[in-house]
Design brief:
With about 200 residues, this protein is α+β, with helices and mostly antiparallel strands. The protein is built from three helices and eight strands, in the order ααβββαβββββ. The chain has one domain. The strands form two sheets. Strands 1, 4, 5, 6, 7 and 8 form a six-stranded antiparallel sheet that branches. Strands 2-3 form a two-stranded antiparallel ribbon. The longest helix has about 60 residues.
Length: about 200
């Protein structure tokens, strides 16, 4: 019997092509997955730094209150907007709730309480993160996103929410929550750093 060498050769070529295509697709998938993982890891590091920055700013508010109102550590350590009416009067502390930080000159203040939206599209307009001329994050700026040609006064992919709670009279629980979306998926990522600030100077 005669063998169809031409037919066998075509089949062999098709098998080789199929193997090559499978290899190329697999390699692309690995490279694409690695790129997304790298991007997500980089964004996670940036998110941690953004969350830590504002957590330290809330601590700065407490320390500034101590300096401004050293005559009444008990009532003034957690006062909102550096209100001098706190001296001798309890009840002027930050209300429990969510805030954004606002810089006024050299001082940090917290905005009025904000009720976070359950819809991400609205949430990102409530707690936006921008870059200022020093490359530091700020609460205000342009709605234009950060690009290679626009690296300041631009909106980043991140949001940042400061949440205040009081486990006791002399303890302020602060959560700095950063969320963002990137190319790794449609669901937002989230970082939630928590610290408890105490009124330890009250003992002195």
């Amino acid at each position: 019997m005669f063998k169809n060498k031409r037919g066998n050769s075509i089949i062999e070529v098709m098998v080789v092509i199929l193997i090559l295509i499978t290899g190329i697709i697999g390699t692309y998938g690995i490279l694409d997955g690695g790129q997304k993982l790298s991007s997500t890891s980089e964004n996670r590091i940036r998110a941690i730094n953004i969350a830590r920055e504002w957590m330290e700013s809330v601590e700065n508010i407490r320390d500034t209150n101590w300096v401004k109102f050293s005559s009444d550590y008990g009532n003034c350590w957690d006062v909102k907007d550096y209100n001098a009416n706190c001296i001798g009067n309890p009840g002027n502390r930050f209300p429990v709730g969510s805030y954004i930080l606002v810089q006024s000159g050299t001082l940090w203040t917290l905005s009025g309480t904000i009720t976070p939206s359950g819809t991400y599209g609205t949430y990102i307009t409530q707690f936006p993160v921008f870059l200022d001329s020093n490359g530091l994050t700020t609460y205000s700026g342009s709605s234009v996103g950060c690009t290679s040609s626009k690296t300041v006064d631009c909106k980043t992919i991140f949001t940042r929410e400061i949440r205040i709670n009081y486990p006791s009279n002399d303890h302020m629980e602060v959560n700095s929550i950063v969320t963002w979306k990137d190319s790794s998926g449609s669901s937002p990522h989230s970082i939630d750093l928590e610290t408890v600030l105490t009124n330890w100077k009250k003992e002195f």
